[in-house]
Amino acid sequence: MNKATTKLLTELRKDGDFNATACINCGTCTGLCPHGLDILPRELFRYVILGLEDKVEANIETIYSCLLCKMCEANCPGDVNITANIRTLRNYINRKHFKI
Amino acid sequence: MLNRRIGVFICHCGGNISDYVDVEEVRKSVENSPGVVLSKKHMFTCSDAAQTEMMKDVLDEKLDGLVIASCSPKLHLHTFRSMSERAGLNPYRYVQVNIREQCSWAHTDNMRGATKKAIALVEAGIAKSCLMPSLSTIRVETVPKALIIGAGIAGLRSALSLARLGIHAYLIEREEQPGGWVGNLGELFPQGKKGPSLIDSLLEQVRREEGITLFTGTELLEKSGNIGNFTVKLKTGQSDTISLNVGAIIVTTGFDTYAPQKTEYGFNDTNVITLAEYERCLQEGTGEIQYNGHTVKRVAYIYCVGSRQKTSESCPSPNTQCSRYCCTSAIHAAILTHKRDATVGQYHLYRDIRTYGKYELLYDEALNLGSIFLRFDAATPPTVHTDGQLRVNVHDTLTRGEEIEIDADLVVLVTGMVPRENKKLVNILKLPIGKDGFFNEIHPKLRPVETVIDGVFIAGTCQSPKTISESVASALSAVSKTAGLLKRGYVELEPLVAMVDADRCVWCDECTKACPYGAIQKVEHNGKEVAEIIPVLCKGEGACVPVCPKDALDVEGYTDHQITAMIDAFSKEMAK
Amino acid sequence: MLPTDISQELDYDICIVGAGIAGMESALNLGDMGYRVLLVEKEASIGGKMILLSKVFPTLDCASCISTPKMASAAHHPNVTIMVYSEIDEIERKENGTFGVQMHQKPTYVDPNACIGCGQCETACTVAIPDEFNFNLDARRVAHIPFPQAVPKKAILQRNGQSPCNHTCPAGVKPHGYTSLVRAGLHDAAFELHLETTPLIGSLSRACYAPCEKECTRGEFEGSVQIRAIKRFIADRYYELNSEPNYGPVKERKDKRIAIVGAGPAGLNAAFQLARKGYDVTIFEAEEKAGGTMQYGIPDVRLPKDVLERDIKNVTALGVSIRTNTKVESLEKLKQDGFDAVFLGLGCSRTRSKREESADGTTSVKTKAPGRVRSPNTTPFADEIKLAANGVIEINKTLQTSLPYVFAGGDAVTGPLTITAAIGQGNQAAYFIEQFLQGHPLNAADLKELECTDKLAVIAREARLSTRKPTKLLKRENVSKEEGRKAAKLPLTEEEARYSANRCLDCGNCSECHQCVSVCPSNAIDFSMQPIHHQIKVGSVIIATGFELFDAHRKPTFGFGKYPNVVTAMQMDRLLSPTRPFNSVLRPSDGKEPDNIAFVLCVGSRDSQVDHRLCSRVCCMYTAKQAQLIMGSLPLADVTIYYIDIRAFGKGYDEFYEQAKGMGVDFVHGKVADITESSEDEGNLVVRFENLTEGKIEKREHDLVVLSVGLLPNTSAQGMFRGTSIEADNFRYIKEMDEDMEPGVTSIDGVFVAGAANAARDIPDTILHSGAAAVQAAAYIENLKGLVC
């Protein structure tokens, strides 16, 4: 059972732009991703939106797997800036987790 | 009978009939029946091309009777009657035989049986056609006035449009204050108008308009008469009544909102409210939103409350309909909330987001303003906990069913529209009610504002859930049908009414008791009292026929002679 | 103030643009109210998109069953007039609030009063084009009846300009026509078609410079159609089988006599055309033999004289007498001899270069005269008719000389040109001579033909039809070098001719092969039809132009156009409809009945990437409908629907959705990300998507994929208004200025909008909206009448 919170989103935004509000949860991005990792990127962004920090922490490898190839972004019906979001997430993890 | 020239046409109905009935066999079987000079088949008898061919056959073959075996007369009786008229054949000499709903569609698993039955039905139709005389419609002058029941947005708008077309509108409203729901709503989507000011401006126009008479605190007591010329009795105030003559009636009595049960989603808690209540709350004040004495910083919306329900123990007679307006309305409320106080966190728990068409832009706007949407499956709805901090738990299908808990200051139940109870009105007007409890139209696709009661139209949310602009379009559509009916100055009624053989009648009064339309009166004929039919009131229902001890009554188009001939023809064929 | 009965001045009270369900519903409503309605439709039949559907949701009524009576009612309503195959050019709002509508009826090339809708022309037509009513699933003929329930049920010839080859031929020959006939194996008919224009078929097949081949659009691909070689095949074959023409002089004679001076191509052709009309024609030829340039100017190796002679027999068989060795020097004398009209086909004669002896007589040198000078043989007539400085005859636009009864054509008029051009002038002159003899005014515009097809559009179209593989140019195999050199001169075999003819792209659609003309029992085909322009005064306008479907090619990830078994929902609806192109639901690649069908929702809707973030409103429902119909007609099939949200919001809609689920349709939450072809099962497709319920990426194989395409605005009405434009919203739909309270009211006072022209709508909402628009228009008219202030 997880508590919904906007704290994570607020914290993340210190490390750059993060905006996945336009996501209508269609799954196109995840479907097209050459990696084929089930949570990349839609569900991952959802963890951020809902504030499920432990899930974000548990999937650091996935976050760094992204090739930033933009296959998802080019086809996103909501025009979400997916690569910018990934970069911000990485900055956040660098700061919070790896303490860089 | 042998001197008749009847043409028979069998329809394939594009496969709807011919997939289950051997149309060629039917055609061949009746080719040489007594009275028949022509037997043909068509892919779609209702199409213009087929009608042109049939008309040509009527002229070339000098047909004096027509039998078309196709679908239900409910669909094309008038189509083929007009066609007959255009061909110079009296429209009542055309007989429709239903071999689709009553044959092909009912026996999709038995082609031989269905074909035999179709032949029998057509033979019966031919037998009837041999006995059908030429008839003329009954012409009735119409009154260029209409009664509109319910002065909500649909009623007000129809009144204005009717008046602009030169038809006087009597607009009655049960409450003291007209305006319906819209009068109590705040900012409306999608143009941001305010409900009360919208109603005020409409009312101002209504009051200025000479062609509209508005009665508030008024109800309908009685309706009598016929299409084009009804007499309606209204109760205004405590005990006053007033009688009016109108040509048509438009029902715009609106909807009710679903009232959640106390146990539903914690509705007994004061901070669990309906969308309507939340909207009212949003109208008050500026800046931070206050409810029940506390500031609202977190709102959780639960969608589909009271709509799209399934049968269950707690819900034995479910509201299966989607209420259409609520997804957009809730999302709009979220946008208004955000505009008022951008720090409010809003969570929407939904099954499907139904912001159709242009309303999708509102969904996009709400998303971009920060509303968060979680999806649940109907089988595992969210649970509301009212002990301690108000919170909602949901299994979010968008994160593989992860259980998310949301702390809230307010839980808003997005309630749907349900039909408004009005047994009295339903009885007076004999309004048909559909499976979903809303008033029933003749055909949901092509005739959404007309009912089977001649001259009575339905518009707005009393027919089905709608948004405001949809209600207005519906209201104007009803005005369109009303104007089409009344602007000509007369209507033509069916001549298939009852007839009395005055010589046989001994005035025993049994028939008047049987007639629900009051269409029989006593008159003098050759020194004795006999019954007489009032044609404009008679519906040709036939309840009077069997109760007459002297066999003095018959219904034109369904005479004993005709029915007997039909039964004989049918059974003869089935016995083969 | 306005005159109280402005309606007296109006032709119609309301003009409705578009006769789909919205247009028809508004028309019927207004007609019932007593207003006079003009309903204008750009297609050849009313009915819009609805008549093309199979069944409609949520009642599953057969779409034809419920729309044909509306169509028939609209067609027969005493207050409604319908104009089909017509387009609005411009609408102007007048100061008094009424509207001037300029429109034209496009020529159908079939007289609607004569046409009985029998369909013979369709059977006889030799050109097949993709059928747009079946969304390119199959082909239909150019001469056709739009569909069986068309209202009105009349044939039309859907021409796309005149094919470049037909357009460019100076002689007026229809190469597309005879090529199409050869393609169909109708070689005799090909000869007869050519004969309609000229008897000199054999000669042209050797000596024509073939401008048609230069214009041939196929030339932009691998190479032109070998039109002249096909002509040669036609001529040689026919002459092989028929050493004499199989006709004689025309029985019905006209009592006028015509003299033709010069038996060259111009003169022979003029003689042929006039003799066919029954005139008495005599040709006077100064030389020993007939033929002009063809006889004396072209060597035998190029144009064998026996071919020329056989061609000339085509003329003489009509009773034309050719008096060779007879020089005419006086036009006045011809008149005195009883000729009512004269055609001068005098040609030009050649002057050879001279050899000059040198002064001492030892050598001879060719003079540097400019080659073989050709000068018109017009000198004898210099004082009877006006000549230009260089000796050519001066004529007006109808080929008439300064003497009214004398016409002229060919080299003597144009200067040295081509045989083909001369033939053309002979034909034209024959037409004007007949007009002259009948006492009609001479009008050059009579011979105007359709403008040329847009070749670029044809090239683009061919590129789009990616399933058409280009055919190679005809090559002869196993031939020796010697024979190879001769190959260009050898005639084609029948197989080669048909192969060659099959490369034709049918640029202008109609080939003008005239097969329809020959079979029509009512003589209804009329190639001379021109657009008919109308200026109409109306009180108000309703725009009901409907919607466009999203073009699925714009989403290349779904493979439409690349994989044959990816179809659009409209194609699927056609496959399911009672007027379907095939007997059951088949998949395009191999005609197999599919048993595992996928539907992809939100194709082109809710999608910023194609600039259409809106929801199209009807796709969830029509998909559920198609799914139910498929489960009915293919009971063993599996149907899967991939979605983001299911929008079943109307009356009875959610119940319909539940019903589909109950029938076993698999609704999968997750939009399809992309589609590829299966590497194992031929023609099958693999869809890849995130299964949101499971939270996993999945691939599933299907044998047919249907793309549920969205609705886009039809923007054609927006340029219609003179001096102003009708306001569109951000999505290019026609905007309602107050959509809450005033449905149908646009930015132009008196112009209303109904149905999908204003926003994507389903049929029930369209009916309501159209009723509302009708009432708005009615109120506007009442205002004009001044009855209600």
List the helices and strands and how they pair.
The complex is a heterotrimer of chains A (100), B (576) and C (789).
Chain A: E1 2-3, H1 7-12, H2 28-32, H3 42-50, H4 53-57, H5 60-65, H6 71-75, H7 82-96
Chain B: E1 6-11, H1 23-30, E2 36-42, H2 48-60, E3 65-70, H3 73-86, E4 94-98, H4 100-104, H5 111-131, E5 138-141, E6 145-149, H6 153-164, E7 168-172, H7 195-208, E8 212-215, E9 218-226, E10 229-236, E11 240-246, E12 248-251, E13 255-257, E14 272-274, H8 275-283, E15 290-291, E16 294-295, E17 298-305, H9 326-340, E18 345-350, H10 360-368, E19 372-375, E20 383-385, E21 391-396, E22 402-407, E23 410-415, E24 417-419, H11 423-429, E25 456-458, H12 468-486, E26 490-493, E27 498-500, H13 510-514, E28 520-525, E29 528-533, H14 544-547, E30 553-555, H15 560-575
Parallel strand pairs in B: 1-2, 1-3, 3-4, 6-7, 6-12, 7-8, 12-25, 14-23, 17-18, 17-23, 18-19
Antiparallel strand pairs in B: 5-26, 9-10, 10-11, 13-24, 15-16, 20-21, 21-22, 27-30, 28-29
Helix pairs in contact in B: 1-5, 5-15, 6-7, 6-12, 8-9, 9-10
Chain C: E1 12-17, H1 21-32, E2 37-40, E3 55-56, E4 61-62, H2 63-76, E5 80-83, E6 86-93, E7 99-105, H3 120-124, E8 128-130, E9 139-141, E10 143-144, E11 156-157, H4 164-168, H5 175-183, H6 187-197, H7 201-207, H8 211-215, H9 227-241, E12 257-261, H10 265-276, E13 280-284, H11 293-296, H12 305-316, E14 321-323, H13 331-336, E15 341-344, E16 348-351, E17 355-357, E18 364-366, E19 373-376, E20 406-408, H14 411-414, H15 419-437, H16 455-464, H17 481-487, H18 494-501, H19 515-519, E21 532-543, E22 547-549, E23 566-568, H20 569-576, E24 596-603, H21 619-633, E25 638-643, H22 653-662, E26 666-669, E27 672-677, E28 685-691, E29 696-702, E30 704-709, E31 711-713, E32 751-753, H23 763-785
